[in-house]
Structures are given as structure tokens and as C-alpha cells.
Amino acid sequence: MGLATAAGLLRQGAAVAVLERGAIGRESSWAGGGILSPLCPWDYPEAVNRLALRGMQLFGGFAEELCHATGIDPEYQRCGMLVLPPFDQDQARQWCAAHGLEVEVRGEGLFLPDIAQARNPRLLQALRARVEQLGGHIVEQCAVDKIVAEAGRVTHLATAQGDFSAAAHIVTAGAWSKVLLGEHALQADIKPIRGQMLLFKFDTPPLPHIVLQQGLYLIPRRDGHLLVGSTLEDAGFDKSTTEEARALLLQRATALLPVLHGMPVIRHWAGLRPGSPGNIPTIGRHPQLSNLYINSGHFRYGVTMSPASVEVLLNVINGTPQPFDVSPYLWH
């Protein structure tokens, strides 16, 4: 979200510095699977789907521009997603019809051919390259210790590498956003929710599309890698992996794709999602500090929502009309 926001501002001619507490693009965005849709969109509030559907609509052009400008392919592809029961098929079909999403009945499952994916690590590499290409300044290992404010404005940021000041400041710190904001957080209720993933490698993709069943998903990459995820764990800022999660993911994935039986797990990792009530992010200007903004709390769908979230934030900053009602996301 930080890199996408920076790129959007740089395209408008702003001077931008990105302060990163660790290494850029190595947290939840890197750790996620890159399914460009809410898993079962009919189960989510309209405020989530409004932003996600707009992001899905914009993502193809967003990825193409990044690839063309940087030469790094985020591997955006409309591979489709097969949703397997149990779920309410009638509700799902009605929702898809109402929102213009194509759907095919496959036995007791539903296939959504328009659902796309991106390869998160490559997307982040492309975004970093684009930000630097546009003249953005990235400062790594630069944790913000305090947002210092006076008379209704942020005066500067006290960081591990000294003080930084700017005309405006935007918090895009994911799971760490509420901690970073401290006394200025107000109702930006964002906390870490751990997700664990497994990675397998085939000679050729073992599936033609994403498969989803009750929160478990299998994501085939073009080069034969297969991602299996993911858990939802309230474990604070602990990013360690567990044998319990590994066993559960392996058991459920093998039941869906028996060829996984006996295959080695190439990698097992965890990331911390920026959890928020109802999966609804906070985007906009601080109610009390006129030069502080936020673009965070996207929970499971930050990558999907990123082009739309940047669009909403830039419209707030510029005072330009929004593509839809953005009141659910505004900072209170």
C-alpha cells in the first residue's frame, strides 16, 4: 500500500519519501497469495466489495503499466477460481448476477472465470522499481518511533534515522499502523492477524485455476509452484510458523489435490495481515491533524484493493470527486 500510494503521488508530480521499518515489501503483501478477489465475496459487507471490485477492475491496467515501465512482470492473469461446497450456491449466484460477475455451475461448485491472480513478490519488485524510477526516495531500516504533532498538524516524524518532516504524511504501515499512530490512532482499529502458507513445486501447473473450499485455497503459478493457504490466527506480532498449521494445511490440501500426498513442502512461512473490523480499511485524512492521512487496515485484500485505495486517497488529498460512496472508509 505504501509503494502503490507513493507511485500514485509521484505520477502527480509530488516529491515522495517512503520510510520502511524493515526491508521494503517484505511483510503481508509479500506473504500473501495474490488472489485478486475476496475469497467468497457474497459473504462480505458491501463496503468491502465496492473497493475490491473497483480494484479488480483497475488491476489489469495497473499491472500492465508496471510491467511495461519496469520490465518486471507481476504475472497478472485471469485464471478463474473454482469455489467448492459447502456454501450457499443460490446466494452466491444472485450476488454474482447483481454485481456483473460471470459464473458457471460445475456440479456442486461454482467457477468464476473473471477472477485473476498476481504473484506478490514480483508485484512488489515492480512497484519498488517504479517508485525509484519516478524519483521516489526509499529509506529502509527506518522505524518511526513517534508522530510529533502541534497545533493540529504533524511537525515531524521521530525515527531510527533521525527526524523527517514533510508537507503531508501518510500512514501505510499495515498491521503496525495503530502502534505507529499511538495517541493519534482514534478509531483506526487495526491489529495483526497471522496467516501461514505452504509452497509446493511441480514441473507443470497441477491445476488450471485457483481452487477454494471453506477458507482453504490452492493457487497455481505459471512455473509450476503451488501455494496453499491460509490460517487466520490472532497471535499478536508473532510471525513464527507452527507444526499444527502445517499439518492442517497439508491435510486439507491433500484431500482436495491427492497428488500432493508425499510431496515435499518447499517452503512454509507466515505473515501478519492488517486486521480490521469487517475487513473494512481506513482511508483518508485524520480528523484532527490536517496533514496526516492513512491508507491501511485492508485485512486480507490489500493487494486486490490497492489501485482503488490509492485512487480514493488521492481524491481525498486533491479534493476531487470519488468513484463511489467512500464514507465507510473515512477516518473518525
From TrEMBL:
Which superkingdom does the taxonomy of this entry point to? Bacteria
Per its UniProt record, what Gene3D superfamilies does this chain match?
Answer: D-Amino Acid Oxidase, subunit A, domain 2, FAD/NAD(P)-binding domain
Q: Please name the InterPro entries in this protein's record.
A: FAD-dep_OxRdtase, FAD/NAD-bd_sf
Q: Name one Pfam family in it.
A: DAO
What's a Gene Ontology MF term here?
oxidoreductase activity
Which residue numbers delimit the FAD dependent oxidoreductase domain? 1-309
| Name of protein | Glycine oxidase
